[in-house]
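USER: For my understanding, would you kindly supply a protein sequence with its structure tokens?

ASSISTANT:
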Amino acid sequence: MKLKLDANGHVVVENGMPVYVHDDGKEIPFDASAAMGKISQLNGEAKTHREGKEQAEAKLSQFASITDPAKALEALDLVSKLDQKKLIDAGAVDQVKAEITKAFQTQLDEANGKSQKLESQLYQEMIGGRFGSSAFIKDKVAIPADFVQARFGQAFKIEDGKVVAYDQQGNKVYSRTKPGELADFDEALESLVEQYPQKDHILKASGNTGGGSQQSQHQAGQKTMKRDAFDSLDTAGKQTALKDGMSIVD
């Protein structure tokens, strides 16, 4: 990115911040104070990680004399069985362990099932709800919110109670207006749509009404979709499109 200059070659300032022009042509003020604060925060986190690594290495050094970890674990298991042999013989220990494992496996499966159901409900509430109320989709996208979710929903995850977006390279999507911070839902979605090869088929027209303006297929009342755009949808998205009466064209 580079500084934006006015006609006299002076740096353009907005709200006390210099304006930078990014590679895609977007002009965004650079908040140096926020950036420095974020750098300081990241430096603190790096120090914490380094100290944790040093502590782990110090603990690991206590086992430097162990050359065969598998034999060490085997010896510990043998000692455990010898101690329990005061009550029952070693063969019975394995049988008891098997019975305990079987008894708790059912409970574990039930707990996992409930957990997956709750995760699904949480995902629909936190992410599905954002697609339904998105101002970006309402103002700039020409297809229904459920179609947008079918195509881009997998890019959003819930981490530490927050919605986080990932791009096609698996990188988190960061805000360009708040340096060092994760992009909020609409900013992240807009960034993902801008990178989508078929974006011209899902975005609304620029708003012009002159003879040279073009409407999207959805705005024109045509229930058609390009085959490559249809193929890029997941199974649920394809089912929704067909159920809605969408015709697939080459």
Q: What stands out?
A: The chain has eight helices and eight strands.
